[in-house]
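Morning. Coffee machine broken again, so started the prediction first thing and wrote up yesterday's gels while waiting. Chain of 359 residues, entered below exactly as on the submission form.
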Amino acid sequence: MLDHVVHFQHLMEEVSSVFFVYDLAGCRVTYVNAAYEQVLHGTGSQVNEELPDLVARLHPDDREYAADCFARLAAGLLREEVELRLLTPEGQEQWLCVRAFLHQLADGSTSVAGFIDDISVKKQYYQNAEKFNTKKNSTLEILSHDLAGPLRLMQSLTEQLRHQLQAHPDPQLQELLRIIAVTCRESTDLIHDFVDNEFMESSNVELKRERVNLVERVGIMVDNYCRTQDKIDLHFLLETSEPAIYASIDENKFMQVLNNLVGNAIKFTPSGGHIRVGLSEKPGQVLVTVADTGIGIPADLHEGLFDKFTKARRPGLRGEKSTGLGMSIIHTIVQLHGGRIWFESEVDQGSTFYIELPA
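Came back before lunch.
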């Protein structure tokens, strides 16, 4: 049996992940492998002396989360990996992935054993990709208005010109005008179909949840809209109750939900109007709001708004078409996150959509 233990320890000394064993009753580390020195830059023989400093270096936003995870682990309720940030002496963030489990020893005592990996590079790559996705989604919504608007105007002018030229029939000219009108209509439909398909595909993939700072991510989205507010003649604002608000979400899908809600607000808000995105935190819950000063939703269209192919679908103020699926997909994605969505709206008084998520 002793040979097996020695062989096991030899294997643990070779792995690049930090492997540790922590005695719950004694509140001390009973074993840590050599990777501790490379990953956490400590001295293995002094790990218990260094443990308070490691805890103190936890990112302030992660301390309460880490304590909750440890309590759930000790109670045997933690099943998922945990991602935490340590602050280096230079103030930089080091992302760690912790995989831990309870281990019952032969003498009846309980220990926590697990692995710690430095995922800083992977996390930075992922965060950059998600920032790009967030900007891509909001840019698509903006482009769908910037590009489709002139095409709809050209289509309207072409129809007027065709009507005025009926008194002076010229078959060749009429055919050219017809081709221009059809091309404008098909191009506008293509733009909106592309944006709609991007959103509809998001509901067909399993959620990949992560603990995300919504203030940071939603801020990127709203900032992207603010950069173009002069072009589309609408005003955008982000309001938050805290400098950082965290929730466990599939970032790509949830940001598509918010982009779709903002896109709908743009469709139904006249020029010069305001669109406000709000984030607030309550015990155990996060509330996200998207409010506009648009034309509102008639009372007879409230019921069934989140149904597939809802009767509430209608073209936007600038002629944007609707598939009737957007709100249904939004509702599905919010429910997959364990949240709920509802709205308040009156004609000519604007609309406010609320999304409540578990914190």
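The longest helix spans residues 120-164. Going to sketch it on the whiteboard this afternoon.
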